[in-house]
Design a protein that fits this description.
Elements: H1 2-29, E1 32-37, H2 42-58, E2 62-67, H3 70-81, E3 94-100, H4 105-118, E4 123-126, H5 127-170, H6 172-180, H7 185-223, H8 237-269
Antiparallel strand pairs: 1-3, 1-4, 2-3
Amino acid sequence: MAIMMFLTTLAAAFGLGALATARSLDTQLAGRLTVQLVEADPARRAAAESRLMALLQANPDVARAAGVDRGALIAMLRPWLGDQGDVADLPIPAMIDVEVRRPDPARLARIADQIARAVPDARLDRYESWMSPVARFMQLMIALAVGLVVLMALATTTVVALAARAGLDRHRETIDVLHMLGSTDGQIARLFQRRIARDTLIGGLIGSAVGLVLCAFVGVQVAGLGADLVGGVRFGLSDWLILIALPVLFTLLAIVAARLAVLRLLEQRL
């Protein structure tokens, strides 16, 4: 039981971490747009940028619109272009970062239409379009974690049923005496429930404690990576409560499984 609860805790933590990452992606990228103004003439490019900035900042659907610093763009290009020539003389597109307020398809479509009418040559990049493979991968990881937890629950049920059968076989004569003394199947099942519940809870607490310590250690290591994608992922209070509640939930599952298994086996014997 300790080993199964240890693995269950790791699987659940993995799923919760993937869910937190998916939520972080939705929050950070779902409502983010980047507008590129590819006009070669600097004067016309600056005029188009000013016109578009004014429209976006006046749009109630836009939470924030800010131009990307040209110096930052030049610094990003310099490693690829080298020091040959003046990078600042290149016709670098003007870029505007747009953050949409309460993003939804209709609101994004209105903003894209406004940009196209104001500057027909503007190019619109939506973050969620190139992050969708990552989002699908996160959904796959969440489903995998849920499947592992369900498999562990089924394994726990199987182990409890086998333990109940072994206990009945080992105490066959004692159970026959209890039946002759007037004990019911329900009373005998409760005896097995208490023992199995105690063993499951003790083993579950041990395995869960080791798993939580390992999860905390991994969380510290992930936070130290400094990556924008995973570095900001943190377990909330509800996530820790779910992990802590797993031993109790599996103990309740073991109690139900033990009672059903014992009652079924006793009926087969009679």
